[in-house]
Amino acid sequence: MSYIGKEPQFTQYPSKFFNGDGTAMTVTLDYSPPNAAALLVFIDGVRQDTSAYTLSGTSLTFTGTVPSGTNNVQVVHLGLTQDVGVPSDDTISTAKIQDDAVTSAKLANSLNITSGNSLTIDSGATITNNGTNGGGFGKVLQVVQGTYATQTSTSGTTYVTSNLSASITPSSTSNKVLVLIHINSFYATGSPAGAHLALYRDGSPIVDVADSIYSQANHISAAGVITHLDSPSSTSSLSYEVYFKKNTGTNAFVHYSNRQSNIVLLEIAG
């Protein structure tokens, strides 16, 4: 026979007969119904109202006298509770799990990404460390480089810009910025000759390298190097710039003979 819509499904309705004994007797059922309305109870073929009996687990007690007879009491269950059981291993697919249903409370205390697999963090996501550094932090998050290759000089003893700079925007206030600077040709003239370097952040000095180069002779040339781990506690754009000045002598030069100098900024996860 054909059906419009879903074909009707049939199930078992367990039935059990009892012998009446002329008392307000108690009978024992094979199953525990959820409530009195989940049963059909008949005495001598007459269906009984739910007020005619009470339930306690599998025990059904009549509230009135049940006439004596053989199999004159019938109890029919209107369906049974089905135990779906525990799904077998590796049988729950991704499609069966509701989006965002698995919370952090249901995850293991530690996650192990096995060899050959990878963990992908989408663009715009943030990794937050709320505990002790377990070795996953201290990583380089981004690298920015700046270069400059035009000779710049000063005859003054006040810091002036070398024009070598770079900017970086940290992703967290707990992260640090490692600054690596190499002035390819740092040169001073005079007798004696000397010059200083300094590192500025957003126009303010944070590292002053005293007596960066010095010589009793009439000139000195060397590489100017600054290495500094900064803790800016900021998520704003930060500008790091190298300044220099004459300490003694005639003049101080950076990027002498138009040699390229470099500044590298590395954001380090805190």
How would you describe the overall organization of this protein?
With 270 residues, this protein is an all-beta fold. Helices cover 0% and strands 46% of the residues. It contains no helices and 17 strands. The protein has strands at residues 15-20, 26-28, 39-43, 46-47, 53-56, 59-62, 69-77, 140-148, 152-154, 160-168, 176-189, 193-201, 204-215, 219-230, 238-248, 251-254, 261-268. The strands form 4 sheets. Strands 8, 9, 11, 14, 16 and 17 form a 6-stranded antiparallel sheet that branches. It is rod-shaped and about 130 Å long. The two termini are 71 Å apart.
Separate helix tally: 0
Count of strand segments: 17
The string of secondary-structure elements, in order, is: EEEEEEEEEEEEEEEEE
Residue share in helix? under 10%
Radius of gyration of CA atoms, rounded to a whole number:
43 Å
The end-to-end distance, rounded to whole angstroms, is: 71 Å
What is the arithmetic mean of pLDDT? 88
* Fraction in beta strands: over 45%
Topology (elements, then pairings):
Elements (H helix, E strand, L loop, with lengths): L14 E6 L5 E3 L10 E5 L2 E2 L5 E4 L2 E4 L6 E9 L62 E9 L3 E3 L5 E9 L7 E14 L3 E9 L2 E12 L3 E12 L7 E11 L2 E4 L6 E8 L2
Antiparallel strand pairs: 1-7, 2-6, 3-4, 3-7, 5-6, 8-17, 9-16, 10-15, 11-14, 11-16, 11-17, 12-13, 12-15
